[in-house]
Amino acid sequence: YSVDFFPPHTIEGARGLMNRMDRMANLQPKPDFLDVTWTLDSGKRTMEMLVAAKALCAVDVQMHLTCTGITKAMANDLLSEAVDAGVRSILALRGDAEPGQDTWSPTPGGFNNAGELVAFIRQQHGDFFSIAVAGHPAGHPSSTSREEEMRHLKAKVDAGADYIVTQIFFEASEYISFVAACRAAGITCPVVPGILVVPPSLEQFQTVCRHCQVAPAPALLAALRQVQDDPEQLRAAGLKYMEDLSRQVLQAGAPGLYLYSLNLERSVKQLVTALDLSKFASDRRRSATGLNSPRPLPWARARDSEVVRPIFWASNPLSY
Question: Of residues 29 and 206, which shows the higher confidence score?
Fold first, then answer.
């Protein structure tokens, strides 16, 4: 499994998130990687968080890279920065519309879609990066049919993607039918289900669903409305629903989980513990997903068992 975070806006927030990421990196079983989202606005903060997590938490990391607002020259600079930082896994996305715009449009000198971005990464850096792309079990907002969606998804995989991470969904049947559609379209790579950690606020939950353009399951929405005035009960109800959903997709053959954490550490810990994900752990060399990907992990995880750290870190609470 892996855990997705978003970068904070302040120094205090960054310190708090680093402490959270350090604790998350030491869950049992350990996550295969930690993921930090990226936008033009958060680019520098994202890279700083990734570098810090990799150095201080002894965990593999993955960076988002979107087509929104960037040219090919900018993308090449960002990829070179990732290479220098030792970040070797990328989630390549088209991205959302730019602020103030209702629809997405390509940047002049940039990319028309995520498939072009994947191809560009492979052209510039070969197999240095492990590359993930997005899939949409509930349907891509811009697609007119599942067939059209599968054509675009297969183009991304054929361009060099190693695996697919799905957008959030709320019914196991959506994931199962999505994987079946992928296989029928000739897409054979792992499809990792994206699981949302439900926030302790009905309004925030509905905001996330609107942003992702995914309708919440009626059963989940009804359960949350019953306890909407009690944040702790709402959090527990959401956690129980997503735990059941996670069990269903794992039993259906999902190779792991990609947890959209919303930076909610306690819920992630409880979910991982309840699911007993240790059975998915392995000592073998892994892909960046920790799954049965066709390519082996491109770097050694030499620091997994590290217990002694340099003395100049003595003042860092993450180290001692």
Answer: 206
